[in-house]
Amino acid sequence: MRTRHRILFRYAPPPLPGLEWVELRGEVKAWSDPVPLRRAGDGAFEAELELGPGVYAYKLQHADRSWHLDPANPRTVAEGGHRNSALVVGGTPEPVLHAPAAPWLFARDDGRVTVRAGLRRGAGEGLALRWDEGHGWREAAMEPVAETNEHRIFERTLPAGARALHYLFRAGGALVGRGAGEAFSVERRALRSGVPEWWKDASVYTVFVDRFRRAGGGWGAAPEDEQARRGGDLEGAREGLDHLAELGVGAVHLTPVFASGSAHRYDVHGFDRVDAALGGEPALRAFVDAAHARGLRVLLDVPATHVSRELPEFLDVRDRGPASPFFSWFEIYAHPFTEGLEPGYRYYQKGAWREPLLNLDDAGARAFVVDVFRRWARFGVDGFRVDAAAELPKALLAEIVRAVRGERADAVVFGEITSDHVESWTDGLLDAGTDFLAQEALRGFLERGASPEATRAAWLRRRARRSEGHTRLGFSATHDQVRTLSRVGDRRLARLEQLAVLTRPEVPALLYGDEIGLASDAPERGFEDAWPDRMPMPWDRTSWDATTLALVKGGLALRRASAALRRGDELALDWGHAEVAGFRRRAGEETVDVALHRGEGEVRLPLPGGAPPQGRLLLVAGEARIEEGALWLGPKSGAALAREASREARELFEAVHEEGPRVAAEAFVEGWDECPALPSRLYLTLTERCNLRCVHCITGAPARTADGSARDMAPWVLDALREAFAGARYVGLSHGGESLVHGRFFETLATIQQARAGRPGRLDVHLLTNGRRLDPDTLASSSTTA
Ligand code: SF4
Question: Taking 50 as the threshold, does the pLDDT of residue 466 lie above it?
């Protein structure tokens, strides 16, 4: 649980006649959701805040709608032309920008810990990290990773095998930590992420239910009103599952399926039942079972900020006013209600809709919302999209996640976040959020002529704003946006966008029809006015764009096969060409480079020197080839390529391995201090956890398992040991806890086997175990693996 800080926020503006109220806006809540300040006796305005450690950008908005920096706070942050005051909670003083929470401090999937910090421009050339993991203080330079208008952002990733980490920064000659040079101290277990493992490898396909497929196929004549229902249903969606399984997506996100009167069904009047027009609950059950049978996860969509005026609880309030037990669920300022623009309750307006807003500060309304999620998690879906999640109180989102996980420990909850500070809702709250600014960076390059440098800088700023890539969803368009192909009308550019979405760190989210080049000829419309692009999915395959389909299918297959694409880091990549942008993804020994060429003509991109210099094409949009040590891209073409060691480098590497024992013997005879030979015996402790509580235990496993301080071997250690496995003759899986409870036990065996494959001689793998998990299945898996 993150420490919460109680803060009395005070704002003392210069005396201004007529200044009746001031609101605090920004990342302390959401830019769209202000904190009203109350007037204090001395003319200042104030509010009590309760915040976890973090860096919060904010501004003050006066009653005349003017925006102001906080004159009492000299700390500022600036990005993309906006300069804001910065509230640093539990973090460092100037000139260093850091707080001990994500995205400034987080545990990576491979077990290491990343420490990130900003240094105010002009305050020095670089930043060093000084840290202690229980073996004494060490110090090393941090790597520059991104730039904002006022700060350079640095990071360093530590092995972090110890239970506690102490650290501070060196800026110039001074040590900067918590307050006056005091080190930050964090327990390793406090950084654990609750994100379900499957989500880290996920891909998502959005089924806009009314427009995806009608049972039996066929759509009938189009109605005049583009917003009228077209009759897509869950039986039809079930029929479409083979297409999705063949495509290779991992999860299906259904737009709302609850009882509703519209085609989009985001105005729900019955959260406890599936819309009868979709086939009711039996149809959802059949859909979920059929999806699970194909290995697909199912995510439901819950709009929880507003409801239909037909919701029974709202009708009761309409009819009975304050006598209704649901009166406090809504934001009511007058009763009886009217039909005008001031109907007596606050509402969400979209076109002709006036949908009552739920009063989510009310305990009854909150319990109602939490119960909706709990009920459908119990039904057996694999997770949820929270519509307009940034508009829900964070405490409510935390309750929702708890309730969902209480029903299904591996269910995922992600949010629609339109704000740029997605990290405020992820990293300790939701599992992921939509990243519209990452989408903007891609569109800026492909559609609006942004330079590769600017695109790279924008991506890196997004990277510096998050922890792991799976805390974001990336997309070319959501169901609320006009599709790229509709806007640009060029299939080649749309395919480049898909190539990028499928290879970037964010969890790729496809909108139904993206994979077949679905597009409208409607003029550009705004966000949430995407009806032309919610056209029915055509099921006559001859109308599908086979090239786009092959690209998406290939991209999803590549992502499934590539740890670098699913979980790898994102690095800046400069292709040295004004029309080419891209990025590098890397995990362990695997490196994948992506190049996107938006121009006409052919470009030659030398594959730069330095390891690894060679390339192998993995995925191509348009025309690409590798020839004469260069990547050649045709007009509006792109490619993902594996970077590989050269033949010479590989031969040298193999020769050293072959020579290992001879070199070791020579080293022994000659008495060398350092010997390049690989170890012949390795002992690994995979985990300190145990499934037993033996009273005679001398390892400490029972107590550590109980108090949560037991450590698991981090995945990066496996990567680091590949070379050693190749040369070893014996690997002992020791019993410092029970190896078979480690989630990567079989992966460890497989890694040893792969690293060892083709090597001469024999390798013995010895497992020390308490035997309780050695059932026939485990034995079968171990023998198949190793
Ligand atoms: S099985 Fe081994 S590690 Fe586990 S509690 Fe017993 S003695 Fe300790």
Answer: yes
